Give the backbone structure.
Amino acid sequence: MHTIVCIKQVPDPEIPPAKFKIDPVAKKVIPPPGVPPVISVYDERAVEAACRLKDKHKGKITVLSLGSEKATDVVRHAISMGADEGYVLQDEAFENLDSFGTAYVLGKAIQKIGGYDLILCGRQAADWGAGQVGSILAEILGLPIITLACDIQVEDKKLKIKRILKDGFEIVEAPTPAVATVSSEIGLPRLPAGVALMLARRKQIPIWKAKDIGADLSELDPSKVHTEITEIFIPTRERKCEMIPGATPAEVATNLVSKLVKLI
Amino acid sequence: MSEYKGVMVLGEITEGKLAPITIELLGIGRRLANDLGEELSLLLMGGKAGVLAREAIAYGANKVYVAEDSLFDEYNSDTYTQWISNFCQKTMPSILLIGHTDIGCDLAPRLNGRLRGGLAMDAVNLSIDPSTKLLVSTRPIFGGNAYAKVVSRFARPQMATVRTKIFPPAERDDSRQGEIVSVAEKVDPSIIKAKVIDRIKEEFEGVKLEDAEVIVSGGHGIGSAKNFELLWELARLLGGTVGATRRACDEGWVPVTRQIGQSGKVVSPKLYIAVALSGAMSHIVGCLGSKCIVAINKDPEANIFNVAHFGIVADYKEVLPVLIEKFKEQRSP
Amino acid sequence: MASREVFWNITYGYVVYVLAAIGIAIWLYGFYQRYRVWRLGRPDECAKEIGKRIGVFIRTTIVDVFFHRKFLRQPFSGTMHLIIFWGFVILLLASAVDAISYYSGYHIQGTPYLWFSLISDFGGFLILLGILMAALRRYVWKPRSLNSLLDDGIVLSSLTAILITGYMIEGLRQAATEISPHPDWAVWSPGGWVFAKIFIDLSEGTLRSWHKFLWWFHSALTVGVILYSGLTFSKLQHLIVSPLNIFFRSLGPVGAPTPIDIEKAEILGVGEIKDFTWKQLLDLDACTNCGRCEDNCPAWATGKPLSPRKLVQDLKGHMLHLSSNSADSHESSLPLIGEAPNEAEIWACTTCAACQEACPVYVEHILKVIDLRRHLVLAQNKMPESAQLMLRNMQMRGHPWAGAQSLRLRGDWTTGLDLNLLGEGNHVNTLLWVGCTGALIDRNVEVTLSLTRVLKAAGVDFAILGEAETCCGDPARRAGYEFQFQLMAEQNIEIFKSHHIQEIITSCPHCFNIIKNEYPKYGGEFRVLHYTQLLWGLIKQGRLSLSKEVKTVLTYHDPCYLGRYNGIYSEPRKILQGIPQVRIKEMRRSRERSFCCGGGGGHMWIEEQPGTQKISQRRIEDVLNTGVDTVVTSCPYCLQMFEESIENKDSLKVKDLIEIVESSLKKSS
């Protein structure tokens, strides 16, 4: 069985909150120097899901990453977990794409690769977290989409996918090929080790440009984006702890609840 | 693009009633519609849709579309996407609001892909830009460290999944008038590719610390395993789970798997309630990713107050029971 | 002239040599069979450097075998073995003397003979006393670490029989030839004399026939014991196998694992018994099941399922299963890791080396544990979740402190300080290597800052890497995640070389140990110092003067990786002793016998078995027993483990040695 996994390289989410800086003019996040980017948390789970399927059913895993040339690092990481090969999609035209543009480019690359049974993505990217690429990709390719997978089984060419719900799980049955987005409930991804790690060190990772995948640049025209970010901001976080007032425990509790209601 | 008009809310029906999020969406939807000077419509799907339509009008909808097909009683991605996209292509709403629920999170991106509109997920604020008349959605990015305002200049409909309990519910006014439109179009069940074959409700203890949205955490000040039950009660009520500091785990009051901190788990829930724990840095490291930290501790000098957003200096044994009560009151319909 | 006739009353005495030769031949055959089993293991580096080995062997023999250094750490059983050993040496020498006398014609006579006889008898007596002590310990006191097998009983009883019959033979001879004509000689052979007095009334004929019978019985029994030992590979084999094991003991640094060639390795770690090297298999046979390792193991002492003795014996069981399947067999043996040894045992080890330090026959336990971990991690991807979290963080972020990066980044500790931060292309002689803990964990950053201030006060010219520093790789290597360690080692060596660094000062013994002892195999040889070594040197040179009073009663806890791994015990103490008003009270378990803090072997992150006492808590008990107000250590892990475990921070403080040093520095104007 052939699984294609789409992964993204993101700035490391694990930094002191005080160091999280944005450039409001460029509308970009400035990662602190010296902190290397990492593979997006859910995408790594998607690779893990693919590896588990490969453990059981043999077959092949291809990894795709749309990003900068540095994205070869995350592709290599996926290979060291057990993927067979990977490609980086890098082109000037691929910068600043929205979810539709991203899905379009990935779709073109996937069509070029072909012969797949399952496409996996993380449920959302750890950076911008739009959470749509997987579903839009499914629409572009005309495939069923199953979101928030925490366990994927294959029986007689049919997928049995366990999905996370707010208060439990459901099992969805779907034909192959299909697209699934993977959530962190799948568990810890495996450690790169063994033969896979050795393979990853030597592996060549091709970089595909727009022409390599036959992308129509007019589809990626910046004026054609479906969503734009007009502003990014960091909510002012009061450094001081706000002490909840109240003469009695009941009053204090009431005041606290009213403060928290928006959160949950 | 000017053919797209109005605010449409995708309603959800839970346990035979309008879901609370739907009532909240009607509230914010009404405001947006007023700002645009346009209509607010609601789409209800399923066997019970007709019965609830009147109520929806009382909550502010000008028009309620009803698709009273029992096929829609159970959500299915294929049928809903197909039907709603056809429906939207006919009704052409300018804005489409969906709840950020199990259904909404699954449906919205796919619907957006089908309709090729513009979608912002997990919106915590919505407004109409006075000059452009565009829907401005505010959504969290980078794990909630920042927020982005998103617009769709050309793509239609402008879609947003809205986080629950952000907006107040719409006010009910039974004197309101409105139109109920029955939509007869059917969808062919043979288009279903992915179907649910089983559903399992889970005990809360199953929610992993790393994935929990609410964590109630206890420290050495809790005093005993029995006292942790109070934390469990609060956690379950809020749909979360219980964590603990290393010392509490060492004492055996909770399993070691509940340990949060430098040598335990690193968590980032929306709400972290730190009960009777001093806030040693080795513990703080594990919970600093929380969006909101509430500290309850007898000692006003405790370090936890240096990192918490809200603090209560009190004996947790006095505060927690009342807090539980207040939350219960707030949550009951 | 006092003397005795060798081979008196014995005809065809040379037959005993024939018997012995046959016995030895059969013994050699048995040994050869075992040798073939050992050789099923993979090649080992220890076959090299034979010349150096001979020197080490002689030294070890003198210190550990003649003087029984390690044995005597357990006074009772050490003494027991000491007297058995020397008793046998005496008896064997005596027998050799007899044999030489007989064939050379030169006999000891007169007073020398009497002393000779006395010493021989004394030798036998020593052995009997030793056996009595052994039996008392094994069968009456029954300490937990001593599990008794049938072999033990057979050995003790057959040796007793040999000795008793030996005295009986002597007594019979004395009764027949000595007592009457030379009563004053008899007392010089007290063992025989006892029996002589019992037999005195027997007729000469009876005496002679009993004597002959017992003589041959005694000889046959001895040959029998040799055969028994050789064919069953009894613990008596340690007479040959243990010296062999000592000869082939690792000459390299303590606990330094063998590199795995990433490109070519076919076997990752040890998954089957044959994956061990032949020397490691030899180890399993050298073990005499004495239990000293178990007695000193901190994991065992706090209720974890790990006993180093049991681990070795379980592995030996696997090896024996192999030999019973015929040593020729190429079939793979049973998977090693399952019930015994099981994963919980393998992960419980803190690699503290107390087991190896205690072992009198130089069994090397640590590398076996690491080899097993390598198999679990690299080949099977199986490890405790806490280990996996730590190793993932090593792999993704280059340090083991998952979550810590949410609080501070690697280079944050340098903010606002006037330090020589190495930029690209800068060259410097001396580097201060801060370590992950010293850069990322608040309490340990205090120690790092203190160290930089002291170094500056002493005028030491050093540079730092700041955020360019990544982990030395120790936690990964000890947890079996070898490839990650190798990548980090190679990367660090490249960084060191790019800055032309010659000397590296560390504050963490784990960094110190791995950079000094294990990096050379990857092309990185530098002069590496732990800060205590550097400071002591500076004090001797007069560049650092500790003159301010520090009124404190403290105890010094020897970190495992500084002490047992690298032999650094005295420098920290000398530094502390030189500080005015400092009083040091040593714990009972200090220096080589120091009890681990529980942080090594990856256990700073890997959870200890729930429901058991924390190793650090057990060590704190040792500290509290001294009644001091401060425990001083020179390792960031020890500092962390103690800080976590001390219940009442008002009654006991934990300090790093550098902090005591700094408080003794007179502030510069």
